[in-house]
Design a protein that fits this description.
Elements: E1 2-10, E2 13-15, E3 23-34, E4 37-43, E5 57-60, E6 69-72, E7 76-81, E8 84-89, E9 98-100, E10 109-110, E11 117-118, E12 124-125, E13 135-141, H1 146-157, H2 159-164, E14 167-173, H3 178-188, H4 199-204, E15 212-217, E16 222-224
Parallel strand pairs: 7-10, 13-14
Antiparallel strand pairs: 1-2, 1-3, 3-4, 4-5, 5-6, 7-8, 8-9, 11-12, 13-15, 15-16
Length: 230
């Protein structure tokens, strides 16, 4: 199945951070699937070939995202799905997945169910966060991210409404310092507990840019990657 996606591009490479700064280009991709994991081969130079090593890209896409996260195609490539690692290689024209040893530092990760979140202090956010809630929002943010701070302010103002609807909102910061978070809390009157994601979990949750939002139902199934406070 061929699909078309729009990517921010700079120097002929896809950009996933500060995308608004770059020109957009449409690229075609072939959607492939196995073992409940979906991946794409992207024809980057538009010549109708989807598997040129060092030219084309491969990637995965959550059903709630508008386009896949990409990595340059090599002879052997790795994908993490719910912290299980698969390899795809040129022996099968990149069309088959082979389960392999888990490697948390892969470029491509895909979450469809809640994965316990390792924090920088060694603690873990685990599945007990779903207890007594209809929905749980994991919100990755940073102090330098203006849209992130605006969302936190909206949540603070509507905390009672969210509690009545049994929504558990958990902000987790990334790419900024604890001191900056404390200063922001004091300046904006925020009452969130400052917790920081570890690098390992940042990779598992594919934090290529901020904010990143994951909404789970009471069973830990991913149901959305957008959260509107209203």
């Amino acid at each position: 199945m061929i699909e078309s996606f729009e990517f921010a591009v700079y120097d002929n490479e896809p950009m996933f951070v500060d995308e608004y700064l770059y020109q957009n280009e449409n690229k075609n991709g072939i959607k492939l699937s196995a073992n409940q994991t979906e991946w794409y081969l992207i024809d980057w130079n538009g010549n109708g070939i989807y598997s040129e090593i060092g030219i084309d890209y491969y990637g995965v896409k959550s059903p709630f995202k508008r386009r896949p996260i990409l990595s340059l195609l090599k002879k052997t490539n790795k994908i993490n799905h719910n912290e299980v690692t698969y390899s795809i290689d040129n022996k099968t024209d990149f069309r088959e997945l082979n389960k392999t040893v888990f490697e948390p530092k892969n470029d491509i990760s895909y979450i469809s169910d809640f994965i316990p979140i390792e924090l920088s202090d060694g603690n873990t956010v685990n599945s007990d966060i779903f207890k007594d809630y209809n929905k749980t929002v994991i919100y990755y943010w940073a102090t330098w991210c203006a849209p992130c701070v605006k969302k936190l302010e909206q949540v603070e103002l509507n905390s009672n409404k969210l509690a009545l609807q049994k929504v558990n909102f958990i902000p987790i910061y990334y790419g900024c310092s604890y001191g900056d978070v404390i200063k922001l809390n004091e300046k904006k009157g925020l009452t969130f507990n400052p917790i920081e994601v570890s690098n390992r979990s940042a990779i598992s949750y594919q934090l290529t840019g901020l904010p990143e939002t994951y909404v789970f139902d009471s069973n830990g199934k991913l149901i959305a990657e957008h959260f509107d406070v209203e």
